[in-house]
Amino acid sequence: MLGQHGRGFTRAIFTAPARALARLGVSPDAITWTGTAVTCALALTLIPTGHAVLAPPLLGIVTLFDSLDGILARLTGKVSAWGAFLDSTLDRVSDGAIFAAIALYALWHMDGAVGTWAVVAALACTVLGSVVPYARARAEAIGASASMGLTERTDRLIISLVALFLVGLGAPGWVLAGALSVLAVLAAVTVGQRMAAVYRQVGPAASATAAQSRAGEEASAVCHPTGGGATN
User: Fold this and answer.
1) How big is the CA angle at 49 (ends 104 and 110), to the nearest 5 degrees?
2) Going by fewer Cβ within 10 Å, which terminus of the chain is more open, N or C?
3) Alpha-carbon torsion (179, 182, 187, 188), positive or negative
4) Beta carbons of 2 and 158 less than 8 angstroms apart
């Protein structure tokens, strides 16, 4: 949801930098790889070591640059299936690094049941956050559509990083644990929505309807064959 509203904003602020990079001959793939490396390095070095105030804004800035590769690709005419695949795959790597780092932060810096709760919720976000885009990609691979959902990648990152930042400022640990739990539930619901949508499109009922439709078309073709005679 937040990602949809932010795309116009990112295009407005990154079009000029993308043009500059295009003049320098920088490729979109290089931006994608660099962004992933920086994200993983920041997340895995700052968050587990307790820098809960410094890490979120830095990661937020890097995440904001996530759309730069796509803008650069469009400006240079290098939009490709490979670029889309690379970007999507490395996004999963970045997300995994961030949520794994948050889980380590909760394990090492949060005590008692709240800490355990946050660790479990962060791991759930890691798993379910990867299943959400996988469900869409697999649906499209079999000719179905599954783009609906309650949360996008941007939503999950913003909410989790804001919650971490607040805890770093002194908010109680349940703020982070609760935010991660909500994200995990929303991701699970999104997976369920996408599975239900694909079932409606290609499940047994849909397949039976399609088979009946094909049978009707074949019967109609037999009863009303196309004439082959010459006309003047």
Assistant:
1) 50
2) C
3) positive
4) yes
Distance in angstroms (rounded) separating the CA atoms of residues 152 and 37: 22
What does the alpha-carbon distance between residue 106 and residue 29 come to, in Å, rounded to a whole number?
A: 34
Task: Answer yes or no: 155 catalytic.
Answer: no
Contacts of 218 (CB under 8 A, 6+ apart): none
- pLDDT tens digits along 118-152: 999 999 999 999 999 999 999 999 999 998 888 88
Model pTM above 0.85: no
Structure tokens at 131: 């299943």
